[in-house]
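Students often ask why inverse folding is considered easier than folding. One informal answer: many sequences map to the same fold, so there is more than one right answer. In these notes we will look at a single instance of the problem. The structure comes first.
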């Protein structure tokens, strides 16, 4: 089973665009979203982005979405004047994805890309609960994401959070991440992303 890309995808790929100096390249958060939906965007990635955003929009309270989003990006102070809430942000993502997809030929998501990771839920919950430096609120938000959204989405957000925090992880934990990622059909670049965090 292999996803459509070797790299990150969906909403966690969009999260990675909000690095520390993103505002040097875009005038607003919405401009970053528009850039992600440019002419060169892959239809399958736009579909994945919409799918992730809809899960967050439909199944989690706005405050939990804000906790997950804020932890998964490098930039701080995301929500405020231009983006008032997590619900508003995910709603905007859905709206823009729908507009983009309406102008393209419809395709079906592959079998691997539909994998929500429910068989890996217990393993993912163990990794979330065993990562001490996440803090109580983020641990709770990720746990809700596993149980109310999908384990796949929660695990990708966990990987993003670890990359943003830059905290060391054990070799054993990294191996568990690789095993879970392989079960979810993740590509090499996504699975290996936290390798530099392994304590030497």
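Output (designed amino acids):
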């Amino acid at each position: 089973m292999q996803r459509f890309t070797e790299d990150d995808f969906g909403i966690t790929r969009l999260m990675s665009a909000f690095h520390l100096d993103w505002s040097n390249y875009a005038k607003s958060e919405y401009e970053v979203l528009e850039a992600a939906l440019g002419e060169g965007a892959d239809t399958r990635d736009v579909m994945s982005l919409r799918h992730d955003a809809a899960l967050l929009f439909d199944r989690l309270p706005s405050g939990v979405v804000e906790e997950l989003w804020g932890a998964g990006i490098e930039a701080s102070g995301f929500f405020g004047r231009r983006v008032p809430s997590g619900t508003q942000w995910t709603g905007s993502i859905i709206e823009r994805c729908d507009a983009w997809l309406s102008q393209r030929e419809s395709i079906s998501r592959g079998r691997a890309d539909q994998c929500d990771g429910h068989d890996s839920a217990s393993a993912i919950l163990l990794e979330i609960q065993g990562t001490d430096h996440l803090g109580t609120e983020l641990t709770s938000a990720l746990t809700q994401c596993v149980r109310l959204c999908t384990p796949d989405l929660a695990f990708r957000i966990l990987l993003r959070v670890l990359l943003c925090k830059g905290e060391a992880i054990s070799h054993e934990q990294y191996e568990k991440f690789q095993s879970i990622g392989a079960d979810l059909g993740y590509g090499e670049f996504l699975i290996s992303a936290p390798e530099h965090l392994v304590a030497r």
